[in-house]
Write a structure and sequence with these properties.
Two copies of one chain form a homodimer. Chain A is α/β, with parallel strands linked by helices. Helix content of chain A is about 20%, strand content about 25%. The longest helix of chain A is centred in the C-terminal third of the chain and has 14 residues.
Chain lengths: ~400, ~400
Amino acid sequence: MKRLVLLFAAAATVVANAQQNIGFRATDITSPVVNDDHTVTFLISAPKAKEVTVRGDWEADGGIGKCRKVDGVWQYTTPPLPSEMYTYRVNIDGVMMTDPTNPFTCRDVGSVFSLFYVDGGAGDYYQVHKVPHGTVATTWYHSNTTNADRRLTVYTPPCYEQNPGRYPVLYLLHGSGGDENAWTELGRIARSIDNLIAEGKAEPMIIVMPNGVCTTEGAAGETSDNLSFRPTMTNNIPGAYKNGIFELAFPEIVNFIDARYKTIPQKEKRAIAGLSMGGMHTLAISANYPDMFDYVGLFSAGVDFSMVDMDQPAYANLDEKWRIQAQKEPALYWIACGTDDFLYNNNKEILRHLDEAGMKYVWHESTRGHLWSNWRQYFLIFAPQLFK
Amino acid sequence: MKRLVLLFAAAATVVANAQQNIGFRATDITSPVVNDDHTVTFLISAPKAKEVTVRGDWEADGGIGKCRKVDGVWQYTTPPLPSEMYTYRVNIDGVMMTDPTNPFTCRDVGSVFSLFYVDGGAGDYYQVHKVPHGTVATTWYHSNTTNADRRLTVYTPPCYEQNPGRYPVLYLLHGSGGDENAWTELGRIARSIDNLIAEGKAEPMIIVMPNGVCTTEGAAGETSDNLSFRPTMTNNIPGAYKNGIFELAFPEIVNFIDARYKTIPQKEKRAIAGLSMGGMHTLAISANYPDMFDYVGLFSAGVDFSMVDMDQPAYANLDEKWRIQAQKEPALYWIACGTDDFLYNNNKEILRHLDEAGMKYVWHESTRGHLWSNWRQYFLIFAPQLFK
């Protein structure tokens, strides 16, 4: 560790001229407003702007809304939106920004977005209700493979501490550009599982969300690289993408979790799932360690083999590994993809490989594309099928 | 709990036109750049803007920097800044926003700010180094007083799980407008204590950060009010401010922590400290429960008695309570305030009360005002004095 020296003496020589308040919310505008008919109205105060546009991850109007100035405030109202969580940014004269008066944001890869929910369906699951709540912890495990302490997020269910019993474990993997915060921040996973457990739809389970970028210790800003590592798509990071190192090292994580937490350390009580790049990780991990997981979930899996070094141990002889995995008859091999996903055809190709290997799987085809709304909804369908 | 209904069928009827990418970072600009001489350069791309200003919580130039357009990019460079963490926003033609290309943000009360560090002193402590790391968990306790599950943040030190031993506990309270995330997000407390422990300067300790706004379950966006509760200064919330309910109910939290965690449940191994409103809470809690805490820290304490109902049980007869507390001789009663703080004179008045009560205390007078830089630095001075 670099030697740290406190320099309070130096600070004391600075002439005091404190900015005791660098500007909290300076307007009475509340934006967005989710209306009773599930339309959503954005209100942006930008008196000198020539053009204001809202751009979000909904489908209506193509996710683009041109604002009109009404009583001096730029406004746009969407058509009615399906119940979901939505993220968006505002474009004011060519500058993309979060909604200036919305305090609720999340980071997706390198950009910060504003967010809101529409009630009445899936979106209800992503919100907090008066039900027993689990605990979300960020902690660190040591990886001998990468010779580093690495950060991961762990959800433990309500009553985990009081109950003397042991729990099944779901390992849940993020996509390219994501990190160990992605499933809690963008996936709203603690809320979904709290609510599914409270309704009796899902078994109480531990959910482990590791970091799948083996060149880093964890999320951008949370490692010893601090702010010098800026978040980017994982395929832009040399040595980080689909070389099979993370996949082959995965037992390190399982061993750490089994040692630290009250798990049931058996195949029948372990599941693994992942989105996009994490779907590819899931595919390879479960094929290479066929006695480790009884439940497998691929969410819009990034199964583009042209981008993978198929000579690497994790990816070599996959057809043969699938034959062995198929003979062990996993309790669930669940594959979900949207019809608009740019990986749709790649996923269909995987089905042909699995068919040849004699693997029994469930194919779930949804609408829409490579989107967090799909991944959140896949989880709501996948989690209730686990550990029954 | 409201009955939740999945409406996947309804979603399937929407014509698919997925926004598979709603716009990640679209520029090669990196802002800010912390230069070797500790000046900081901001680069803002706003081609159509008439005026661009940076506003931050540093003292140089009054924290305001007017940008000039250089090669089509708005730029401003600060004078050299003392080592710290800094937050700022950008004003483009009257719209306040985060720096469009800086992915690192934090929320303070109702506004989202961009952030950066300057190395070489206190700022080093707020960053991650290659040292053993503790665990940060958000969990929930039940309050009989408010008849609600309430959210709190708990730091456990490195080796907490492996070590069979038990640990002292610091209770650390936020200010008005803050919540149970404030000390981890804005206070960078997990990094500071990891680094202090690694240097042998502080004892390994548990740090508990509850929510001091007794009308809520927790931080805005994290409760069953979801996004309908927007963050605001606590004194704007009816029934939430300095009525003594949180203070009198405090043993609920201590009992929960002693039951859940491997604590040393003795006065000699308990500390309490808080900033601003949390300093007032600390003052009242430690006076009302003089056998609970041996270490007390007031950081820029919000000790404006004109805003408190002195007839409430928590605030009644404080002078008499202080006399009793003084007789019990706390191991440390530490009071810190900046010379520019608008609460400076109120804190000096508290010293006179404590003098009359015969309380031995340590007065730490810093430069600057009612600022997170002071509170982060107070922690670096306070924590090493605990549990020795």
